[in-house]
Amino acid sequence: MSTWDKAKADSQEHFCIDQADGDCKECARVERLIAAGDQLQAENERLREALKEIADPIAAMKKEAEQQGFKPDGRVIVEMAANPQWFREKARAAIKDTTQ
Ligand SMILES: [Zn+2]
User: Tens digit of pLDDT for each residue in 36-52?
Assistant: First the structure.
């Protein structure tokens, strides 16, 4: 269980005084915090994936070629890995949709 999953499980338990009319401010607050936490966790995962690809570009480039229906060409991939353009695009795409 991740740190966030534990915090989320803890947050869902509270003494709910207004539960009867379904209008508990604490429930609403916890829901907002959990939604924000889930969004940050998803973002963290996406950024980590991009960093993993940047850290191991040859494997990522081979996978991309296969996904696009090409047989990975070792020479082309070595040339791409020596060019900063692929890394820039990877990093820019990863930060494009971040919340901050
Ligand atoms: Zn409540």
Answer: 999 999 999 999 999 99
